[in-house]
Amino acid sequence: MPMDMIKNDVFKRRESAARSYCRSMPATFTRASGSEIFDKDGNRWIDFLAGCSSLNYGHNDADMKEALIEHIASDGIAQGLDLHTDAKSDFLKAMETHILKPRDMDHKVMFTGPTGANAVEAAMKIARKSTGRTNIIAFTNGFHGVTMGALAATGNGYHRGGASMDTSGVTRIPYDDYAEGVDSAALLEQMLADPSSGVDEPAAIMFETVQGEGGLNAASPEWVRRMAEIARNHGALLIIDDIQAGSGRTGHFFSFEDMGVTPDIITMAKSVSGFGLPMALVLVRPEHDIFGPAEHNGTFRGNTHAFVTARVAIEKFWADGAFQKELADKSTFLTGALARIAAEIPGATLKGRGLMQGVDVGTGALAEEICARAFDNGLIIETSGNEDQVVKVLAPLTTSEETFSEGFDILLEAVRETIASKTQIAAE
Question: Can you tell me the distance from the alpha carbon of 375 to that of 383, in angstroms, rounded to the nearest whole number?
Fold first, then answer.
């Protein structure tokens, strides 16, 4: 074990106990490139976490880095509040040309504070102001952030407990295929049609098409379409949270592209900057763009450096269909690799879609041990799910097949070591 992983006194001495990922990955990282990350002693890890999908294009993409360095070196605007800047203009033109117009989307782009939770807060406020209602329909195992409004829509009890006060304004419904034999779309239709159901008419129906933190539960296109229809029939807005599932993670720029729906509001963050820089935005249909000036405010609503890299990301990866074709091929490869890993674990099942897939290994303890062994052998990978029982692959979308294969070899060995260890303990 590198000395770096043994002694991190200043972090233990001064960093808040709220720290998280570093507890299971006790190294001090110093540099990264593509799908690889290194510590100060040169120890190398393959990165299958990618900043929790905030590094979809890998670490330090050369073209984004060059553009950012040029911007900084020429004294380009660093902090512009929401003033007009050339960097913002260039980003908006790229977004309009390569993302919105080709998809026949008339949405306005609202820049919020730099976190996904802030984008969710804005989306919920827009829906409530636009409709004059307060109730938001959210779903089991959904994760939308841990600020108070977003937390009300988040299902995870541990995170909700962190509020230490009531969270309200949300009605929670079973997600697609949450309960065996329960058609949750039909259930919601029935409850909204019944004036005595106790469910208030909603301002919005909000969900992720793939639940990133909830265990990679993937909604079917039919279910998504039915939710869109229910929202339309009841005068509610359809909000799709694409913070983790968007920016190419599920195979298209938006996770809902091939489902035949156009959300009223879309929240984006994580990889929307392309470079791992803080940036979040809300895409909203013009008729719902109803905030007055600064009604949803924030000093950092629009990260100018992120505008620079986000523009490059769009122009480099989304100006034509080549990258999307690569993602389809990698998705097939990923499914096959995970199927081989699942075959090693009794009862394991595959979860997710696109480049947002994983293996449900049954228990959080087993998943945690697999990930720990993988880390010791040079792979960074994490868990998700209501009991952290899903080993989740969020590798950069740009990961080569060679690096993918190397990472999966490490993961397979970690699985075999873990199973063998548990078999030996049981035999004793």
Answer: 13
Strand partners, 383: 391
Helix 62-73, helix 304-317: angle, nearest 10: 150
Token pair recorded at residue 191: 């409850």
Task: Count other Cβ atoms within 10 Å, centred on residue 49.
Answer: 23
* Rg of the chain on CA atoms, in Å: 22
Segment 332-372, tens digit of pLDDT: 999 999 999 999 999 999 999 999 999 999 999 999 999 99
Torsion of the alpha carbons at 37, 40, 43 and 46, rounded to the nearest 10: -10
* Residue type at 55 in one-letter notation: L
Cα–Cα distance, 360 to 350 (Å, whole number): 6
Answer whether 0.85 is exceeded by the pTM: yes
| Angstrom distance (rounded) from CA 239 to CA 288 | 12
Question: What are 153-193's pLDDT values in tens digits?
Answer: 888 877 888 877 778 899 999 999 999 999 999 999 999 99
Query: Measured between alpha carbons, how far is 54 from 279 in angstroms, rounded to an integer?
Result: 10
Q: Who's near 99: CB < 8 A, 6+ residues apart?
A: 105, 253, 314, 318
